[in-house]
Every structure is written in C-alpha cells, then in structure tokens.
C-alpha cells in the first residue's frame, strides 16, 4: 500500500514539473539522463549555428559569430528591457550566483567562460542599439563588478540561437505561460568550446540558476580531465 502511494506521489511530481516547464523539458530530461551520475560528462546535442551578430563588450560594439567564441564556454540567455524588475530569468540569482562565480574566478578556472545576453523587449523581440546601451548602464549600476568582457550584450533575433529541435520537439514554444509568451525568454543554454549545446534549463527560478551553475562545473571538470589525460 505504501509503495502504491509513493508511486502515485512520484507521478504527481513529474506531472507538476511538466506543467511548470512545459515542452522545453524535452532537452532538460534528456540531458539529465545523459549525464554520468558520477559527474564526468554532459550529453552533446550538436552544433548551435548563428549568423554574425552585434556584441557590446569591453571593446565597444563588434560584429562576431559563435565561431569567434570557440575555445570558450558560452552561456546564452535573453535579457528583457523590463529587467531587473520584471525578467524572464531570475535576475538577482543570475547576478549574485552565476555571474558572481564568473567574476570572482575570471583569472582562475572560469576565465574561459562568457555570458552572452540577447537584449529583447518584454515580448522577446530585438531592440535598438540605444536601448541596449541603456541596459548596459543598468548592469553597471545594479550588478556588482559588472565586466562587459565577461557579460556581453547581444543585438540579434533570439530565435536564431534557440531554433533547435530534438526528437521532433522544438525548443522555441509560444505560450502565454512563459514570460512574454515565448519560451526562450526563460531559457539558459550552455555551449561548450566547440559551440555545441550541452545543457538548456528554464532559469525562471533560483533553483534552476543554481542547477545551471552545477552543469557548468560538470563541463569544466570534463575539460580538466581531458587536459590531464593529454599531459600523461
């Protein structure tokens, strides 16, 4: 009897998660199953392709592509013009947890990690350069130790980055349950040094921001292991 109750409880928990995160879970669940539970390696979902886009970083405005970030680990998000008050992602956990780790370790283990945020309006649409510069000023005033080399703002159509399909299911989903009505407003993608997708999570909660930081650590451990093997 107790076993039946536990089974029903587990099924209800899975259903609740599905209702919260929706179709974007297809990559999350697959990636979780693909991970070595001894924290050795993340699954590889293939190359993320994106044409040239405008980047606002420590050098000002540049025209780059993801190929310019090869040999770097890249975290991709969107960032709404309504932030920090209303955001698709949990803004303060993003800044105080994930970004803080990048900033405090930029000369150490995480020196090859970059955070790219595609600036969009509240509905997930691209914005003008003037608006992007305003968001950069907001980050300078709101985020301790904001470094435009580590956290770079992007002018582009986010659909170009998030237009991914796995097992017949699309990562981009339009639904009123998402912030601004589109899934990519809430999603964080983790790309490896070859621009391959290694994890995608819904970053609307602090727990998922922390989970992304854990997966970033997993990926960095994989590179540490590969480097150690080459030295022997």
CATH architecture, please?
Answer: 3-Layer(aba) Sandwich
CATH class: Alpha Beta
CATH-defined fold name: Glutaredoxin
Helix content: 25-40%
Count helical runs.
6
**Which spans of ≥5 residues are poorly predicted at pLDDT below 50?**
9-39
Strand segment count = 9
CATH superfamily: Glutaredoxin
Count up the domains. 1
Order of adjacent strands in the largest pleated sheet: 2-1-5-4-3-8-9
What is the arithmetic mean of pLDDT? 85
Describe the 3D structure.
The chain is α+β, with helices and mostly antiparallel strands and 232 residues long. The chain has one domain (41-231): Glutaredoxin (3-Layer(aba) Sandwich), CATH 3.40.30.10. 38% of the residues lie in helices and 20% in strands. It is built from six helices and nine strands, in the order ααβββαβαβαββββα. The chain has a seven-stranded mixed beta sheet. A two-stranded antiparallel sheet has the order 6-7. Strand 4, helix 4 and strand 5 (151-155) form a beta-alpha-beta unit. Helix 3 packs parallel to helix 6 (206-231). The longest helix has 26 residues, at 206-231.
Write the layout of secondary structure elements.
Elements: H1 2-21, H2 25-34, E1 53-57, E2 60-64, E3 73-80, H3 91-104, E4 113-120, H4 129-142, E5 151-155, H5 158-162, E6 165-166, E7 169-170, E8 187-191, E9 197-202, H6 206-231
Parallel strand pairs: 3-4, 4-5
Antiparallel strand pairs: 1-2, 1-5, 3-8, 6-7, 8-9
């Amino acid at each position: 009897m107790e076993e039946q109750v536990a089974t029903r409880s587990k099924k209800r928990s899975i259903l609740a998660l599905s209702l919260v995160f929706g179709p974007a879970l297809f990559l999350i669940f697959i990636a979780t199953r693909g991970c070595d539970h001894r924290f050795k390696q993340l699954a590889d979902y293939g190359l993320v392709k994106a044409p040239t886009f405008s980047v606002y970083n420590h050098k000002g405005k540049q025209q780059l592509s993801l190929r310019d970030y090869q040999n770097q680990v890249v975290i991709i998000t969107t960032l709404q013009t309504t932030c920090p008050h209303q955001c698709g992602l949990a803004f303060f956990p993003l800044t105080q947890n994930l970004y803080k780790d990048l900033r405090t370790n930029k000369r150490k283990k995480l020196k090859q990690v970059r955070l790219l945020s595609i600036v969009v309006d509240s509905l997930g649409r691209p914005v003008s350069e003037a608006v992007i510069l305003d968001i950069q000023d907001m980050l300078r005033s709101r985020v301790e130790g904001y470094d435009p080399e580590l956290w770079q703002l992007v002018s582009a159509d986010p659909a170009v980055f998030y237009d991914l399909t796995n097992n017949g299911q699309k990562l981009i989903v339009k639904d009123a349950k998402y912030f601004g009505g589109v899934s990519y407003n809430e999603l964080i993608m983790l790309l490896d040094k070859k621009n391959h997708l290694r994890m995608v999570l819904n970053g609307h909660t602090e727990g998922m921001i922390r989970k992304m930081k854990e997966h970033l650590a997993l990926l960095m451990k994989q590179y540490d292991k590969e480097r150690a093997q080459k030295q022997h």
